[in-house]
């Protein structure tokens, strides 16, 4: 399946244009070198920007939480909650296996699965209460 | 995209100045529409380029000794404008120069210069040269238009010619000189592309319809003051405005070097 996820640079460029800000305006707002910012937008770095840098950019652009999440995801910096989940998945191989398998599913199927899991969690909680 | 609905002919040296003017004016009108409430001048070139959906990067462009490249346009992968960060100080102190550079590169993009087939290219091209559409279209320095002095321009050209002469003399015996000469020859855009891109930049930033409207206010073109006041309104250099007015035959320069209004030309049909 072809991956249609945008690179960090392209995501940043799209959001910046949507917010009607120029490269110079954003760079000035976060006190970043203008050339450096333009290179970020054109994916000219081997390493991805840090979470701190992304947060600064997101703030300067006036991004919503979703948009900030988009930037973080595009930079391969998943949000903190997911980061914790990934750590747990690393400790429990079965969970990691489920996670890796689910990643290949379409979004609606993932949501169905998540609902199913949540419902099972809820049922087992009720079952525990009933036994008590 | 900003240029949707604007008909742009296949790139050719035969595309007239009038056609380029028409395309640039249509682009400016599209820019006004997108930037609600904008009268069409001065054009914020950073925002114009964003609307054109061309990425811009600022990094160093290597320059042969005694030559200056302000910017370049690379058509591959959807196009990229590279602004030479070596000239950052100049761009900050002279935003009109920066805007003119972006206007020029936008001209290459809008006028589809990268689609130019190799066979119709410059006569000076050697058979083994890399086709122009695979290279950056490097921005020749149009110093006069940027309002630099005649002396500065003269020295610049003199230095460039001296370098070329030196390279030509050494090219037969020195491989490095031959390579440098080829680099100089290859990396400049053909003359007609350069002229069209320059004209586009001029017409985009001083759109015909806006200028015509403003000229109705009545301006005294018996001195340079009116030219500079107009230039200020459009956010361009006085030299750029002078060129625009001369090309539109609003103004002419007398033998004594002072301006005067052009007498109107009677429009006569070819078969009248």
Structure description:
The complex is a heterodimer of chains A (132) and B (272). Chain A is an all-alpha fold and 132 residues long. Chain A is built from 8 helices and no strands. Helices cover 72% and strands 0% of the residues of chain A. Chain A is elongated and about 65 Å long. In chain B, β2 (71-74) and β3 form a beta hairpin. Chain B is globular, with a radius of gyration of 20 Å. The chains are: A mainly alpha (132), B alpha+beta (272). The A-B interface holds A 13, 16-17, 20, 22-24, 34-35, 38-39, 41-42, 44 and B 44, 46-47, 50, 55-59, 80, 83, 85, 88.
List the helices and strands and how they pair.
The complex is a heterodimer of chains A (132) and B (272).
Chain A (H helix, E strand, L loop, with lengths): L7 H11 L4 H7 L4 H8 L9 H11 L3 H10 L5 H12 L1 H11 L3 H25 L1
Helix pairs in contact in A: 1-5, 2-3, 4-5, 6-7
Chain B lengths: L16 H18 L10 H7 L4 E4 L11 E4 L5 E5 L3 H6 L1 H16 L26 E2 L11 H22 L3 H13 L3 H15 L2 H8 L9 H10 L3 H10 L3 E3 L5 E3 L11
Which runs of chain B of at least 5 residues are low in confidence (pLDDT < 50)? 118-135, 141-145
CA-based gyration radius of chain B: 20 Å
> What is the tally of helical segments of chain B?
10
Cα-to-Cα separation, first versus last residue of chain B: 42 Å
Strand order, sheet with most strands of chain B: 1-3-2-4
Mean pLDDT of chain B: 81
> What is the percentage of strand-forming residues of chain B?
5-15%
User: Can you summarize the main beta sheet of chain A?
Assistant: none
Number of strands of chain A: 0
Rounded radius of gyration of chain A (Å): 19 Å
Concise synopsis of the structure shown:
The complex is a heterodimer of chains A (132) and B (272). Chain A is mostly helical.
